[in-house]
């Protein structure tokens, strides 16, 4: 057990998921500690308390944080446009430094971290270009190219891409900034408001919600495939638990591309191209581990 101990934080909009481990498998299988995400003044000290208790027993070598965004990488804090208002400007860097001094910290978006985890340990193993989209309450996406999470002007914001509105769909969309972007039309929140019921498995498999949902998600996958040349696109998040939804998306991606991109992944083997996470529900926390491990250099 010579490997360094890493503290992993998956910071979600409703809950914090915490784990520690020396390997990605250990973190994948570790018992999770959950805390509600309320305000930074309340939540950050509780997260740090839990890690500090571990640190006293077995010193942590580094911490990795996979955080909801948007993230302002220039200022190294949560961005000023997050709808979680109290978190605007909140800093994981400052919170870790205050409690742990100069302990190495790796820090990225939750979806970037999940893409990294799938690239390294999941469905993206052996591929240079890996995209990860999560379809839950909101929609987000991360991209790994050559082993690195893509940052540029900011970071990818795939949840806010434009998709074609389907004929007869007059739902205005739920995105506070754009209305009918992908997140506005296809997130769990939009399913809930459009159909006036909770989304996910609460709506039956043959409900028209899922035909529409697969339309919008297939547009998203086509956009990501054509723009990024991703070698695999991983779809995570609670909505994909709906039976048959992933298969519908795969079929529509294939139909839309119509053989133009003449590779097996986009013609006869779309089911190996648009896939569920290899790490299941653990992509985010394993991604946080990977960020912490990388912070050690
Ligand atoms: Zn939007």
Summarize the structure.
With 297 residues, the protein is α/β, with parallel strands linked by helices. It has nine helices and twelve strands.
List the keywords:
single chain, alpha/beta, Nucleotidyltransferase, domain 5, 5-stranded mixed sheet, 35% helix, globular
| Number of distinct beta strands | 12
Strand content: 15-25%
Sheet having the most strands: 5 strands, mixed
- What are the bound molecules? zinc ion
Share in helix: 25-40%
What is the subunit organization of this protein? single chain
Low-confidence stretches: none
Describe the structure.
With 297 residues, the protein is α/β, with parallel strands linked by helices. It folds into 2 domains: 6-112 and 281-295, Nucleotidyltransferase, domain 5, CATH 3.30.420; 124-276, 2-Layer Sandwich (Nucleotidyltransferase, domain 5), CATH 3.30.420.40. It contains 9 helices and 12 strands. The strands form 3 sheets. Strands 3-2-1-4-7 form a 5-stranded mixed β-sheet. A 5-stranded mixed β-sheet has the order 10-9-8-11-12, sandwiched between helices. A two-stranded antiparallel ribbon has the order 5-6. Helix 2 (40-57) crosses helix 3 (92-100), helix 4 (110-121) crosses helix 9 and helix 7 packs across helix 8 (245-257). The longest helix is centred in the C-terminal third of the chain and has 21 residues, at 208-228. It is globular. The two termini are 19 Å apart. The mean pLDDT is 95. Zinc ion is lined by residues 160, 175, 177-178, 181, 183-184.
């Amino acid at each position: 057990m010579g490997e360094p101990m890493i503290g992993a934080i998956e910071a979600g909009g409703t809950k914090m998921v915490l784990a520690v481990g020396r390997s990605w498998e250990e973190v994948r299988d570790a018992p999770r500690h959950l805390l509600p995400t309320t305000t930074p003044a309340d939540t950050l000290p509780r997260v740090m308390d839990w890690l500090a208790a571990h640190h006293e027993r077995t010193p942590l070598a580094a911490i990795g944080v996979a955080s909801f965004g948007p993230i302002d990488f220039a200022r190294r804090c949560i961005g000023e446009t997050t709808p979680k208002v109290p978190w605007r400007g909140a800093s994981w860097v400052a919170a870790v430094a205050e409690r742990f001094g100069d302990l190495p910290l790796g820090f990225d978006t939750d979806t970037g971290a999940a893409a990294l985890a799938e690239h390294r340990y999941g469905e993206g193993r052996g591929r240079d270009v890996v995209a990860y989209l999560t379809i839950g309450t909101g929609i987000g996406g991360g991209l790994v190219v050559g082993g690195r999470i893509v940052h540029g002007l900011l970071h990818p914001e795939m949840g806010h891409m434009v998709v074609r509105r389907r004929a007869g769909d007059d739902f205005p969309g739920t995105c506070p900034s754009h209305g009918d972007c992908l997140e506005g039309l296809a997130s769990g929140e939009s399913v809930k408001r459009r159909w006036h019921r909770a989304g996910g498995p609460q709506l039956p498999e043959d409900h028209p919600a899922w035909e529409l949902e697969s339309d919008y998600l297939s547009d998203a996958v086509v956009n990501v495939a054509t723009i990024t040349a991703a070698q695999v696109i991983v779809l995570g998040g609670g909505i994909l638990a709906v039976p048959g939804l992933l298969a519908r998306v795969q079929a529509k991606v294939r139909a839309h591309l119509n053989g133009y991109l003449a590779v097996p992944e986009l013609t006869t083997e779309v089911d190996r191209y648009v896939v569920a996470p290899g790490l299941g529900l653990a992509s985010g926390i394993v991604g946080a581990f990977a960020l912490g491990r990388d912070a050690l250099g």
